[in-house]
Write a structure and sequence with these properties.
Elements (H helix, E strand, L loop, with lengths): L2 H27 L3 H13 L3 H10 L2 H10 L26 H13 L4 E10 H14 L4 E6 L6 H15 L3 E7 L10 H7 L4 E4 L19 E4 L3 E5 L17 E2 L1 E6 L2 H17 L18 E8 L7 H12 L3 E5 L7 H12 L3 E7 L5 H9 L1 H6 L3 E5 L3 E2 L3 E4 L3 E5 L5 H6 L2 E7 L1 H17 L1 E3 L1 H5 L3 H11 L6
Parallel strand pairs: 2-3, 3-4, 7-13, 10-11, 11-12
Antiparallel strand pairs: 1-8, 1-9, 2-5, 5-6, 6-8, 9-16, 10-14, 12-17, 14-15, 15-16
Helix pairs in contact: 1-2, 2-3, 5-10, 6-7, 10-11, 12-17
Length: 478
């Protein structure tokens, strides 16, 4: 046998051996059958290279490291019904069905419902940033800030200055910026924070030299906790585009929330884990977790989600809320790419007689995502749901309200990236009063929007439908 033949046999045997080992790993660790089949096909049809790609990009190292930080298994075991720790019940005026939803979310999150909270909606950066900056200015013990994007600019400069002053007063300050989001402005604001002696870290730094909106395993949470008693969360990054008064070309509408009460401790716990995961510094004690204080009458619970032991916590929460809806489901999201389970659940709810309203931007800021979303809007519209297209400026708000009594607020979009691939943080709220405030915000958005009709989809040109359909093939990764 000649040398080239020997080399060919060796490479072939190596490919088969490596492919068998990698395929076994895929079968044991991939829960999505489409993902598993795709990876196995790539491994066997592209010798050695496919296996290398899987080892590099297909293994969820985040989940394994997260398990080590928490000191628990990375596969969440759902606790049995009736286990202690249920916390406060939903309010007495809530629909009876919300009791079942509260139990579902308790078992998914392993967190109790917290009574005694107050939550204030903050519309756009025009209202959110002043409230956040004021809270930082009045901090006396600690400031914990996590964000996906922290851009340079007028808003960024104000936040950097406020954080520097907090450090100067002796406050313990920690700032966590996603490794991709930190690169949305140049030079990154991380360098500016460090020069001001503000402790800052990047979450899971990306190897890409430029910001890439389709990189996975990002920390998409937007959390601010001041003195362990006042919290902020929602969908708002720190960038000038969020302040409509600045009249930026790419102005972005958004919604953030100020929280007070026991639920703030759950926000702080999520930040503390992310910070320890990134820096290995453990935050604890009364400095970060002071005694709980009530802030109002709202019942709420934090819902952390990510590709670790919190995997699909938000997906199960959303599915549970849709299943329990008796009268209405209202959704506002900038990216609407639901998988089959959510799509079918919405259609079934509409066929049960539930009024399903979905508000999405008429023009998105990510073309591929918008094309893919448009490809499957027909299934939603034909299923009896109403889809409203909101005019510019681009609306980045994220809301869900069910039966005018239960609400979901936070950072997660309705797409695979948020519900499967990124770290997110939402808060579920049981309050008719709070839901009414959110319904009023949604009403304003609906009035300004255009109802998408089946005829609008049917009249689209063939090449547009083909383009959108091809984009939809990448839906699991968008």
């Amino acid at each position: 046998m000649s040398s080239p033949q020997v080399l060919g046999v060796f490479i072939g045997a190596l490919h088969v051996g490596v492919a068998l080992v990698v395929s076994a790993h895929i079968v044991l660790h991939k829960n999505d059958v489409r993902s598993a089949i795709g990876w196995i096909g790539l491994v066997w049809l592209t010798p050695i290279i496919g296996s290398g790609l899987y080892v590099t990009f297909g293994i969820n190292r985040i989940r394994r490291r997260a398990g080590r930080v928490r000191g628990r298994r990375t596969v969440r075991e759902i606790p049995p019904h009736g286990e202690r720790g249920a916390g406060a019940p939903p309010p007495a005026d809530a629909p009876a069905s919300l009791g079942a939803l509260a139990e579902l979310v308790r078992r998914v999150t392993r967190l109790p419902l917290c009574a005694g909270n107050a939550i204030e909606p903050l519309v756009d950066g025009d209202a959110a940033y002043p409230a956040m900056l004021e809270a930082i200015e009045h901090a006396t013990r600690s400031v914990a800030l996590a964000t996906y994007i922290f851009d340079r600019g007028r808003a960024g400069t104000e936040f950097v200055a406020a954080l520097e002053r907090a450090v100067g007063r002796g406050c313990q300050v920690r700032v966590l910026i996603d490794g991709v989001g930190a690169r949305y402005s140049h030079p990154p604001i991380v360098d500016e924070l460090r020069s001001r002696r503000v402790p800052v870290a990047r979450f899971n730094p990306s190897r890409f030299p430029i910001p890439h909106p389709y990189v996975n395993l990002r920390n998409h949470r937007k959390l601010l906790v001041v003195d362990g008693t006042t919290g902020f969360c929602g969908g708002m990054n720190i960038r000038d585009e969020c302040v409509l008064a600045y009249r930026m070309p790419n102005a972005t509408r958004d919604l953030h929330f100020q929280l007070r009460g026991p639920v703030v401790r759950q926000l702080q716990t999520a930040f503390a884990f992310d910070w320890e995961f990134t820096t290995r510094e453990r935050l604890g004690g009364a400095l970060w977790f002071p005694p709980e204080r009530e802030g109002g009458a709202l019942v709420a619970r934090g819902v952390a989600d990510g590709p670790d032991e919190d995997f699909e916590a938000l997906l199960m929460t959303i599915l549970g809320a849709i299943g329990q809806a008796a009268r209405s489901i209202r959704v506002v999201t900038p990216y609407f790419l639901p998988g089959t389970p959510i799509t079918d659940a919405l259609r079934v709810a509409a066929m049960r007689g539930v009024a399903v309203d979905i508000v999405i931007p008429a023009r998105g800021n990510l073309r591929l995502v918008q094309w893919a979303a448009t490809a499957r809007l027909g299934a939603i519209v034909y299923g009896g749901c109403r889809v409203y297209l909101a005019p510019p400026p681009f609306d980045h708000s994220k809301l869900m309200v069910v039966d005018n009594a239960w609400s979901l607020i936070g950072s997660a979009n309705w797409d695979p990236r948020s519900l499967r691939l990124n770290f997110e943080y939402d808060v579920e709220c049981y309050s008719r009063t709070f839901a009414a405030r959110l319904d009023a915000i949604i009403d304003d958005k609906v009035r300004a929007s255009t109802l998408l009709k089946a005829a609008d989809l049917e009249q689209r040109k063939l090449w547009l439908r083909l383009r959108d359909g091809v984009a939809w093939l990448a839906q699991p990764y968008l």
